[in-house]
Amino acid sequence: MAGNSSRRGAVRKGGTKKGQVAGSGGKHRRGLEGRGATPPAEARTKHPAAKRAARAARADEKQGRGGRPGPGRKVLDGPETVLGRNPVVECLRAGVPATALWVAVGTESDDRLKESVQLAADAGISILEVPRTDLDRLSANGLHQGIALQVPPYRYAHPDDLLSEARKHAEPPLLVALDNITDPRNLGAVVRSVAAFGGHGVVIPERRSASVSAVAWRTSAGAAARLPIARATNLTRTLKDWASKGVQVVGLDAGGDTTLDDFDGSGPVVIVVGSEGKGLSRLVRENCDAILSIPMAGPVESLNASVAAGVVLADIARRRRSS
């Protein structure tokens, strides 16, 4: 009979309460509570990602990122891998300073692969033959086509160093600031235009902005290797600081109060380019000395950000040559 402790073989410890005991009396309540969301890998001290982040933080401290930046440029991003035959050969043609070219074992050769290997060999880039599974792990869809290129992180300048270096040239500083530009192809195209028309550098925000990735390298046609690019922790504060040092801050917008025909641009100037969709952010716009528009004859409402920057830079360069 259930619950009959006097049956043969039944054992009951002395002093115990008869019958079932419901629950744990609250003794294990904390063990039953949820522990919340799993923290990110970087926050788990024994995770490899956390160890990598700690090593990067120590390296950054040595380079002066804790306060005033150290000399030279600073590394803010990690290395990037370019996958696919067309992207790889285009990067090598553009002179992207790659560190290694990986070719999968047994990959069928074609003109693009041969050219990539030749360009890498001419540039002194390490050429490594690796198992195809190694490249499979680098590509989510496996479309690496048997070739990959490792691009090191870009070394950004500091905005203060960018302006001081620009002042060393014979002509007044000509700089470009990008606000809300998130497409790396636009970034690369702007860098190419700045280099082509005698500009001295480009500044981008650290957040909500495209970085100098392999795509930007390729679009700039190698100009990113010759033109300094700075990252600003706060773009508005950087523009205010430059304005206090005698640099005219000019924003580009279709509804500007000054047209390109009336703009001089002979003095120190920074051209601020916003995105084609959102344009200039409110704080950046409020801190511009002038808002410049490009007169257009056709019914086009606006130009692509990189095209607009190229038009303005070309006009400023023409005026400076003729003065």
From TrEMBL:
Residue ranges, annotated region (Disordered): 1-81
N-terminal signal peptide: none
GO biological process: methylation; RNA processing
Keywords: Methyltransferase, S-adenosyl-L-methionine, Transferase
Tagged with keyword Cytoplasm: no
Highest taxon in the source lineage: Bacteria
Compositionally biased spans, kind Basic residues: 46-55
SUPFAM superfamilies the UniProt entry points to: alpha/beta knot (SSF75217), L30e-like (SSF55315)
GO CC terms: cytosol
RNA 2-O ribose methyltransferase substrate binding domain ranges (all copies): 81-157
MF (Gene Ontology): RNA binding; RNA methyltransferase activity
Pfam family, one: SpoU_sub_bind
Coiled-coil region list: none
Family assignment from sequence similarity: Belongs to the class IV-like SAM-binding methyltransferase superfamily. RNA methyltransferase TrmH family.
Name of the molecule in the record: 23S rRNA (Guanosine2251-2'-O)-methyltransferase
